[in-house]
Specification:
With 114 residues, the chain is mostly beta strands. The protein has no helices and 11 strands. Strands 2, 4, 5, 6, 9, 10 and 11 form a 7-stranded mixed beta sheet that branches. Strands 1-3-8-7 form a 4-stranded antiparallel beta sheet, with no helix packed on it. The relative contact order is 0.33.
């Protein structure tokens, strides 16, 4: 059974940092690129960052470049999203995705507010 479980969300002040984790199981993790998406209230889900299966390439939405870093540990079947210099507009539910298996996690809430 393919499963993705996100964790690490929470409430943080503007300028703060959070690290999201996504633990994968039930599929060959190292064979799949991984992505982080987010969805704010009333908005469409948007791609935040992606990483290739062997960590050879990454890509980011323009809105998070220079602030967010995606990484993965294939030995731990986990993908991470380090988020620095957070802004109120980063507030959203964050989802991880394994596109090769069309798998999604349940999401973790990130709220940036003073």
């Amino acid at each position: 059974q393919v499963q993705l479980v996100e964790s690490g969300g929470g409430l943080v002040q503007p300028g703060g940092s959070l690290r999201l984790s996504c633990a994968a199981s039930g599929f060959a993790f190292s064979s799949s690129a991984m992505r982080w998406f987010r969805q704010a209230p009333g908005k469409e889900r948007e791609l935040v960052a992606g990483i290739s299966n062997l960590r050879t390439s990454t890509n980011y939405a323009d809105s998070v470049k220079g602030r967010f870093t995606i990484s993965r540990d294939n030995a731990k079947n986990t993908v991470y999203l380090q988020m620095n210099s957070l802004k109120p507009e980063d507030t959203a539910v964050y989802f991880c995705n394994a596109p090769r298996f069309n798998a999604w996690g349940q999401g973790t809430q990130v709220t940036v507010s003073s």
